Amino acid sequence: MRQLQLPAFEFTEKQKEFRKEVRSFLQAEKQKGTFDTHADSWLSGYSKEFSKKIGAKGWIGITFPKEYGGQARSTIDRYIITEELLAFGAPVASHWFADRQSGPLILKFGTEEQKKFFIPKIVKGECYFSIGLSEPNSGSDLASLKTTAEKVDGGWIVNGMKTWTSGAHHSHYMITLCRTSQQDPKNRHGGMSQLIIDLKSDGVTIRPIQFLTGEHHFNEVFLENVFVPDNRVVGEVGNGWAQGLTELAFERSGPERILSTFPLLEEAIRLLKEKEDHRGLMEASKLVSRMWALRNMSIGIAALLEEKKDVNLAAALVKDLGNSFEQSVAELIRLLLPAMPSKHAEDVYARMLAESILHGPGFTIRGGTTEILRGIVGKGVISA
Amino acid sequence: MNEMKSFIEDTVGKILRDLSTKEQRERFEEGEWASSLWKTIQESGLTLLGIAEEKGGGGGDYEDVFAILRVVGKHAAPVPLAEVIYANQFLAAHEGEVEDKLRVVHFAEESSSVHSPYKLINVPYGRYIDEVIVIRQEDHQASYSIVNALVCEIEKNDNLAAEPRDSLTFSNLGETKKLDLSFKEALEDYKKFLALSRVAMMTGAMESVLALSIFYSKERQQFGRPLHKFQAIQHHLTAMAGEVAAAYATLAVASASYLSDLEKEQIAMAKIELSANANVVAKAAHQLHAGIGMTYEHELHHFTRRLWAWREEGGNETYWADQLASLYQAREETIWESITHVKGEEAHAGSTV
Ligand SMILES: Cc1cc2nc3c(=O)[nH]c(=O)nc-3n(C[C@H](O)[C@H](O)[C@H](O)COP(=O)(O)OP(=O)(O)OC[C@H]3O[C@@H](n4cnc5c(N)ncnc54)[C@H](O)[C@@H]3O)c2cc1C
């Protein structure tokens, strides 16, 4: 089956040099105490200072065109940055969605004014976005969403509610999927639009939802008669669903679907080596082999994306397999190196073990549940 | 994918589609050597692949070899192509020119092979081969002898897939020649080749298992619907497709590393992966096929039995994990440095990334 045949990709010497540069920078920052390594740092590691530092290096939106402040570099360079940040467990949550989704979306469908307004700020690490999709009664069945935008003079009036909105309390804007016309039972995916809502607007209320660790990651966002001017609609009115799908392969096959618990694995192997625990290293080597295989898949996809090939099927598979792998790391490691996992432990290993266990269930839920994903792939395999 | 490679793959695919049929495999399991299939393979130059033309070979490189072995696995061809390619290359390297014969190498690791009468166990296709190159430990060096298999006493045995793994007994080693390698080095070289061969063949077998499953899930109806309409069946298909894609990426990267500094670690990881996931694929496919998949009649078992057999050959997960554990222990590098092939600036004493 051709869609599953992924190529080997060799990083060039120049790309390896670049990786070295990123790594040296992170190493130095870590030594200075700018950040501590955490598992799943892309969900929970918020640091404006760090995002600005990364932005100053030119490492946010590195693929964006130069005229808007980007570097017009390749998706492979972005891949390298993303991998190094995750391997270090660095605090990247603030700018994460802007770099991965919102920036590319605006560049692809946005107006010139939107590009000039948002992109330079995103690139500097000063402008953060949240993703406003899920609602209390619309999770997997997203097309059933109820938040509506009604046309008025000069813009839209939005009413409704979003939930599970990661980082809304840190973000400046939320790309909000809402109904701009009545749902048509024959075309369930029509009639929706993407609006950029300024989270400081009148009528926006953000209420924290405590994460199961007690921390504050996601939120409920209430929208009551929020005015959104015409120039904050992204792309075409009514085309929001289709627009949202275009960047999905990047979201699903990126290193963050594989590496969320990698810092725990690296630390565990360091400890096993210290103890000269051969059996333990043998077991851990199987996790490393899995990670290596999934990374090869993910890089193969990145290489095909650079050539603008259709890789949707393989990309969905990376998310499914990668998420299961991320969960399996803590489950195996806890048996090799028994400890009392605690979020508050001073010991880095015990702390990251706790983070990996407690965040684990979310891996196979966020960005679309495993059940839904497998349904999509199963149908794709049949029709391929 | 380079064009030459895909051309060879397509050509071999056509040959095997015609000649490695279900009926051919069944006749093979009843004890009939696949002579016309083997003859066509030989005539196409596949047995001498990777050997320079001056030495009587067919040219090509190792990436071609592993690409073709994937196709061999895809068609579950009942022939020892991987083993013969290795034996021919071994002879080309040590003797110069090679004549194309049905030969395999055997490393005399078992105690029964130390003194005459020599007994070699688990020799691939022992009952069908012309000769076996026996590699033995002598003092601290390795030596090899070419033994005529036709004069050996044969005890038949086979692996899970009914591929012959026979015992050969003989009393005369004949002329013995020294190798400029230790026995351990020579064995490791073979293990790596065999492991990567099985990675390639398992990738192909997994592909066929997926294809059979897709076909059956469209054809078979229950509750008035084809099976693939059921979500639980979609999940089985996804599980298989995931492993097929992972196997592809694994094979591509590992075979590109063959003969480089990275080969040992990458082959170890590749074989661990394929061996560990062979049953993910086999299990899902059997569940999806249910009763019909448990019959001799349906050809699913030609592929699933090979997956179960091949996961043990060329070292299973335990063998290669042992190698990797020693590798990790012996070096300073972090896992991330070794995976990315880029070393950080700082020495990594104590805390890592
Ligand atoms: C850590 C985290 C961060 C998140 N961040 C964001 C964010 O920033 N923005 C945002 O919009 N959303 C976010 N989400 C929400 C996430 O996208 C939803 O949780 C997800 O889409 C599932 O929706 P749900 O929770 O309503 O579950 P439901 O859809 O109610 O599903 C419940 C269960 O039923 C299964 N199920 C549902 N339908 C089917 C079906 N047709 N077939 C088989 N099984 C089915 C599901 O797989 C699941 O197991 C986040 C979630 C998490 C965990």
From TrEMBL, chain A:
Domain Acyl-CoA oxidase/dehydrogenase middle: 131-226
Entry superkingdom: Bacteria
Keywords: Oxidoreductase
Keyword Transmembrane helix: no
The Acyl-CoA dehydrogenase/oxidase N-terminal domain, residue ranges: 12-126
Residues forming coiled coils: none
UniProt key word Cytoplasm: no
A family per Pfam: Acyl-CoA_dh_N
Name under which the protein is recorded: Acyl-CoA dehydrogenase family protein
UniProtKB/TrEMBL annotation, chain B:
Keyword Secreted among record annotations: no
Source species: Cytobacillus citreus
InterPro entries: AcylCo_DH-like_C, AcylCo_DH/oxidase_C, AcylCoA_DH/ox_N, AcylCoA_DH/ox_N_sf, AcylCoA_DH/oxidase_NM_dom_sf
Annotated PANTHER family: ACYL-COA DEHYDROGENASE (PTHR43884), ACYL-COA DEHYDROGENASE FADE28 (PTHR43884:SF20)
Protein's UniProt name: Acyl-CoA dehydrogenase
Domain Acyl-CoA dehydrogenase/oxidase N-terminal: 8-81
Domain annotation Acyl-CoA dehydrogenase/oxidase C-terminal: ranges: 197-318
Similarity remark: Belongs to the acyl-CoA dehydrogenase family.
Pfam families membership: Acyl-CoA_dh_1, Acyl-CoA_dh_N
